[in-house]
Design a protein that fits this description.
Shape: globular
Largest sheet: 6 strands, mixed
Strand content: 15-25%
CATH topology: Nucleotidyltransferase, domain 5
CATH superfamily: Ribonuclease H-like superfamily/Ribonuclease H
CATH architecture: 2-Layer Sandwich
Distance between the termini: 50 Å
Number of strands: 6
Number of helices: 7
Radius of gyration: 16 Å
Helix content: 40-55%
Number of domains: 1
Strand order of the largest sheet: 1-4-3-2-5-6
Length: 203
């Protein structure tokens, strides 16, 4: 595994293929308040590319171009949060998307446990650590533990997608899942516009 850290953008020469795994690290859990600090990416080849941002410096033209590319599926775990954070700070709506948490909720109805750690353990027999989840991602220099943690959040998403796709097809829910993925960017926009806690579909 190789982890490469960039400041402010990815090089234009990187080709992530037709499906790129993405995750974000922020200063907290409210994108409107808590700034974007790190974006992690992987093409599923066992390597991770990390883009670190400082406050108020979010030009990143190469990253933005890839996020908006309709020929590249952006693969997340809990896309709702990450897409909102990317919209708030990079001003780009990330589409199309695939969310392993949504896929798990639709395919694995026998359990209430759909965290990335659980999915990696139960579906791939891989143990990942979440100890650095609440660390200071706004620090000017990230620790080796933070970098390793950040990379682990994207390294296994392609494998999970393959396993979850098989489960969704088996249960006859692939089309339903795709409909949910199509709506996810709009759900993120509703969150940052003030409807994060309100079910607009309720009576």
């Amino acid at each position: 595994m190789t982890v490469t850290l960039y400041k402010g953008d990815i090089p234009s020469s990187i080709d992530f293929g037709s499906c790129v795994a993405i995750d974000t690290e922020t200063m907290g859990l409210k994108p409107v308040r808590d700034r974007l600090c790190l974006v992690q990416l992987s093409s599923g080849d066992g390597n991770a590319h990390l883009v670190q941002f400082v406050a108020n410096e979010y030009s990143a033209p190469n990253l933005k171009k890839m996020l908006a590319d309709q020929n590249v599926v952006k693969l997340f775990h809990f896309a709702r949060f990450d897409v909102a954070a990317l919209w708030m700070y990079l001003n780009v709506l990330t589409t199309p998307v695939y969310c392993t948490k949504i896929a798990s909720r639709l395919a694995r109805t026998f359990t209430q446990h759909h965290s990335l750690k659980t999915l990696c353990n139960e579906m791939l027999n891989i143990e990942i650590s979440k100890q650095q989840q609440t660390s200071d991602w706004g620090a000017s220099t990230l620790t080796e533990k933070q970098i390793k943690y950040a990379a682990s959040d994207v390294l296994y998403l392609h494998q999970l997608k393959d396993a979850l796709d098989s489960a969704l097809i088996r249960e006859g829910r692939m089309e339903l899942a795709q409909s949910c993925f199509n709506f996810l960017p709009s759900r993120s926009l509703l969150d940052v516009a003030g409807w994060s806690d309100e079910d607009i579909f309720a009576h």
